[in-house]
Backbone:
């Protein structure tokens, strides 16, 4: 090891990430329970997680995974969590298809100020046609159109965050100078999707820009990530595939003119930890016994992008056409898993229901730590996005039993070493373009 530390993110969902997690007697019910979410986030902060992450969608899925049916609006949630945390990063999802750059740039700048530099934005284009009818954008925009809009959207947001140089707001009582007008900049953007004059009516965020997260896994999504993302959330099931994915992404990052290590890759894992391996297996069995087969099939159909209920349960997963407009990353990976292990539809249904489309890792805390260390040291990833099967006990077990093992092995921090999310992730603070130009001229 070179002393590099892994990054850890917690994907918070009040209903848990196993399709039946919420049904366990020890699970607390609360997709909209702020007190539960607050306690989960504070537990993650006690464990020195880099960040807590809130996914989102702008439609309610009657037939979706329980965690996707209802949830608190994440930007509002981050505003509340600013007040009851002090170090952990706070990341929320916001769609570039169903919002406007000025509003989103202003909201994330506000959260970064309120949290003293702990905000992150998970940029998504929106993968559900069901959302389009809620925003008057029916028919659903094409995959290419959504990414074209997203690229310009992020460019505009960054331009708005640069409306003010870092020391533009003087507030000099003696001279009466409230602001340095030369250090306030209008954006005057006019592009294919947006016309935005600016400036933003809030000063530059403490981090320069909130940290940009991205999770798209299509070729178009990966190209977008290579140009704009700082953290990529990946779904990989096999270590060798994950190594190839990470190296391929770094190649794209380099081709985009950025340093190869400019992007951190976090692989999603659903850990089930027991005092013994048999106890961990028993938790998996209990969860499987509670899983509604109809709900499980809906989760599989949603993740793979095809109605899988039309196929016989105990026959092999059929060859399915590639998707062009819906979410592609999970579909490609799930089909590869089915092919690699020669799964039946029933086996694939139960696997995806258990892992929410990510990798299920089970055993004792030592065994799960061994697995994470192997993936991290092999170059498969820079860290992990942790998806607890239910809430809140698995988060407490991870923090109290697994993280101390990672710390003893020198794989994870013993204490926070900085105050901002960029500090935690080892990411540089972007310089203001006007300041950089003046420095270059001098």
Residues:
């Amino acid at each position: 090891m070179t002393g590099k530390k892994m990054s850890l993110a917690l994907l918070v969902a009040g209903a848990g990430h196993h399709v039946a997690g919420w049904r366990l007697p020890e699970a607390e019910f609360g997709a909209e329970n702020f007190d539960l979410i607050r306690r989960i986030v504070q537990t993650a902060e006690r464990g020195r997680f880099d960040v807590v992450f809130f996914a989102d969608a702008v439609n309610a899925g009657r037939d979706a995974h329980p965690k996707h049916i209802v949830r608190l609006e994440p930007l509002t949630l981050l505003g509340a969590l600013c007040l009851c945390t002090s170090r952990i990063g706070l990341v929320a999802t916001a769609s570039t298809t169903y919002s406007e750059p000025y509003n989103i740039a202003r909201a994330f700048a506000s959260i970064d100020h309120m949290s003293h530099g702990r905000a992150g934005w998970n940029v998504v284009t929106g993968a559900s046609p069901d959302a389009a009818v809620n925003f008057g954008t029916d028919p659903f925009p094409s995959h290419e159109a959504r990414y074209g809009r997203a690229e310009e959207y992020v460019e505009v947001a960054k331009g708005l965050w640069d409306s003010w140089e870092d020391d533009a707001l003087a507030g000099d009582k003696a001279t009466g100078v409230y602001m340095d007008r030369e250090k306030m900049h209008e954006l005057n953007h006019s592009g294919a999707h947006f016309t935005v004059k600016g400036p933003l009516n809030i000063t530059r965020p403490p981090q320069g820009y909130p940290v940009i997260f991205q999770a798209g896994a299509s070729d178009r999504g990966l190209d977008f990530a290579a140009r704009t993302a700082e953290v990529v959330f990946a779904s990989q099931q096999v270590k060798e595939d994950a190594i190839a994915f990470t190296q391929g992404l770094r190649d794209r990052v380099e081709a985009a003119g950025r340093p190869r290590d400019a992007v951190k890759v976090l692989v999603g894992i659903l850990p089930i930890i027991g005092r013994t391996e048999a106890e961990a297996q028993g938790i998996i069995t209990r969860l499987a016994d509670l899983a509604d087969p109809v709900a499980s099939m809906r989760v599989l159909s949603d993740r793979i992008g095809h109605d899988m209920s039309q196929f016989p349960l105990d026959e092999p997963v059929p060859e399915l056409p590639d998707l062009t407009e819906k979410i592609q990353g999970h579909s490609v990976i799930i089909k590869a898993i089915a092919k690699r292990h020669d799964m039946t539809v029933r086996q694939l249904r139960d696997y995806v229901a258990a892992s929410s489309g990510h990798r299920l890792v089970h055993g004792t805390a030592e065994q799960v730590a061994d697995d994470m260390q192997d993936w991290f040291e092999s170059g498969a990833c820079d860290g992990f996005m942790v998806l607890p099967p239910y809430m809140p006990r698995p988060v407490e077990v991870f923090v109290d039993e697994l993280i101390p093992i990672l710390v003893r092995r020198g794989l994870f921090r013993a204490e926070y070493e900085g105050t901002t999310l960029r500090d935690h992730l080892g990411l540089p603070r972007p310089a203001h373009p006007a300041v950089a130009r003046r420095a270059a001229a001098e």
Notes: The first helix runs from residue 34 to 46. DSSP finds 15 helices and 13 strands in the chain. The radius of gyration is 22 Å. The chain has a mean pLDDT of 90.
